[in-house]
Here is the input.
Amino acid sequence: MAGRLEGRKALVVGAAGADNMGQVIARRFAAEGAKVAVAGRNRAALDAIAGEIAGVAVECDFSERASIFAMVDAAKTSLGGLDIAVNATGWGLLKPFLETTEEEIDKIYALQLRGPFQFLQALIPAMEEKGGSIIQISSATATILFHDHDAYMATKAGTDHLVRSVANQFGDKGIRVNSISPGVTETPMTADAAAVPGVMDAFVKGYPLGRYGTSEDIAAGCVWLASDECFMTGQNLQVNGGLTLRANPSKADIEASVVAAMAAA
Amino acid sequence: MARLDGKVAIILGASDPRSMGAATARRFAEEGAKLVLAARRKDAVADVAGPLGATAVACDITNEDDLIALAKAAVDTYGKLDIAINYAGIEGGAPVIETTAEMLRQQADVHFVGTGLFIKQMALAMKDGGSIITASSLTVLVQAPGQGAYAGSKGGADVLVKVAANELGERGIRVNSLAPGFTKSAMTDAYFAMEPVTRAFLKEMPLGRFPTVEDIAHCALWLASDEAFVTGQRIDVTAGQALRRTPRADEFA
Here is the structure.
């Protein structure tokens, strides 16, 4: 049976960490029949995933404009076209608002707002002849709050609005642009926090569906947005089991959950 | 394996072969679902159901007994209920200062009360989780003069969807709404017959074409499938018109 992305050419940036969200998305795209370019900073990790899915590895520093443009160019050239692009990069900075440094603000702005902005600037010319689907991985925290996450939340929310504007401007080229908002997800980015007993338990209460998300959930959302069957553009899709209907745990909730887990151990 | 193999779905509002309901039924049948199709007119929905091997049931969404019977038909015929989609809707427009109590009640009865009862009865029949989808509207997203009663009743239902999703998650039931844009369908023939209207609307669609009933069906398939870790959301299939506006009546000249 033909895959849902048969013959499509896809670029996934943020796929240079073992089993991170970008890699899970890249694997799913390949399983659906797409030819995939994986991009990120770690060459060895990129080569590993590219080898696994018979894809192409492209090195990219998402904080550098020239690197982003070169990545899009290299991906399009090596794949023989570009129909789908996903930005799954991110930096999960946790820092109290008053303690967040200028250096941290600059770094997260470069990765989570300037980078996506320039990625879109590079993608539009690359896709405008044949159209395509662009997917920005956002966050539920662009909608609902989380403690010590101000710089992260603000840049994610800013990029969601950029997605709407770019979708509005380039729909006539057949380019659809959407974002997906995961909630807390077990990934290498959250592994350290998730390893502390009680932490993830505190999150589960926020999920009407009774579990937090997986990278596979996000990959499934990406397949939908990427496929030709999808006639959506300019939207922020909440793929988080209803988390935005409730809330993330507060810092005190998490601390209490950790204490309870320790007491139970 | 097809995407809805082993699933049992109810689709309400499928009496016209060119409706969103009928398009969704065709798509779901391709994907292996067992179907119960419903509408007020049983003879009409039977014509759509026949070629698909689906069961046809008469149902008026404003009547809770009808909804109970509809859910029961799925469970009695196919043993369970996994997916329930409501496209039942009525038109009706007037400026707010000309809108009568009767017009408000009529819209609210179908789109708000009906949707609430639909969610309730479908959820009660779902014993092992499921997906409930109800049609919202572009008019909830961008203001359309003259559509106060219609948009208000649809918007109210969207809020109801969120509350239901929050409550029903623990039963493994997802509840979402799907907002079609200005879609070429059985319900919009009169508008599509007016070239100045279609021209004005098309200008407000970034994707440059009207949504089709098939576009809506594809989205319903995604929301219905177990792959969608999504609940309490309104998903818009508007060709991007939600990013812009509804044309004013004086642009239809």
Helices of chain B lie at 20-30, 42-52, 64-78, 101-125, 148-168, 189-192, 195-202, 213-224. Chain B has a mean pLDDT of 96. Chain B is about 40% helix and 15% strand.
